[in-house]
Amino acid sequence: ENNASVLLNLGNLYAAEGKWNESMEHLQKAAKLDPTNSFIWESIAKLYELTGNYALSEGSWMEAIRLDPERREFRYHLALVFSMQQKFNDALEVMHQLLNADPENTDYLTQAGIIFLMKKDLGSSIETLKRALGIRPENENARYNLALAFLATGRKQDAVRELERILMLNPDHRKANTDLGVVLLSENKPREAIPFLDRVLEKSEDDKALFYKALGLRELGKHKIASGLLRKVSGMNSPYAGKAKEIIASSGITSRRR
After folding, report:
1. In terms of C-beta density within 10 A (0-12 exposed, 13-18 middle, 19 or more buried), how is residue 27 classed?
2. Nearest of 192, 165, 160 to residue 179 by alpha carbon
3. Secondary structure (3-state) at 155
4. Per the count of CB atoms within 10 A, which of 51, 55, 61, 73 is most buried?
């Protein structure tokens, strides 16, 4: 058992250093020495989760829960792993169990709302996230996902309101700044949108913020600066790279039109 504890600690240390193979080797040895230790299975499950092996993580979380059924955090992680595999009904069943035990837990409510959003059950997502915010209004994660749910239903003004509330408390929130800039661009308000995108770009060369800033600059007729940003995005490993290349390819036509 002492050896298992040493192996567990070493496995967790390797995981913290990003040495996944060494970590798993030590954790699996620990599990063989002490197979009834739920904390070993927790570490194995988390490592599989970190490395995207969700099916193996699911099995490890289930073993941890079998050994220690009272630990709610194990069930919470199992719900996350279910949702990452698009097993939304399974994930929501676990969240329902957790909320029955602790109905005012805003972390549980927020995660349930996110799972509903992933499932595209937008009405349930909005209702659940509002419930979380009713208990803890400063819950940034719940408010951001509520904004996403509003956007998915076409309720742009409601989304803008929630994004602005986030930025009142946390002006540097990267996703809220970017998404607010994108929404304002969709409403043909490039002058209002660009400052939010710039706030993100002051911290890092975020591909999404760069791409949409370029679109905003094009709307303002600043094609040369916009082209420079698009070229930068086109060279990134980014989902926006292809779109940037398409715009660059057609920029001569667009420029003549303007």
Report:
1. buried
2. 160
3. coil
4. 61
> pLDDT tens, 90-115?
999 999 999 999 999 999 999 999 99
Q: What is the DSSP letter of 170?
A: -
> Which residue type occupies 131?
R
Residues in the chain, overall count: 258
Nearest Cα to Cα of residue 137 among 160, 165, 171: 165
CA distance 221 to 128: 43
Residue 85: its H or E element:
none
Between vectors from CA 163 to CA 157 and to CA 168, what angle results, nearest 5°?
A: 125
Radius of gyration of the chain from Cα atoms? 23
In terms of Cβ atoms closer than 10 Å to its own Cβ (0-12, 13-18, 19+), residue 252 is exposed
Whether pLDDT at 176 is above 80: yes
pLDDT value of position 202: 96
Q: Which of 17, 15, 11, 13 is nearest to 32 (CA)?
A: 11
- Burial code (b: 16+ CB inside 10 Å, e: under 16) for 85-102 equals eebbebbbebbeebbeee
pLDDT for position 251: 75
pLDDT tens track for 128-156? 999 999 999 999 999 999 999 999 999 99
Instruction: Please tell me the distance from the alpha carbon of residue 255 to that of residue 57, in angstroms, as a whole number.
Output: 52
* Range from 55-69, 149-163, 237-251 carrying the lowest mean pLDDT: 237-251
Which pLDDT does position 246 carry in this prediction? Answer: 93
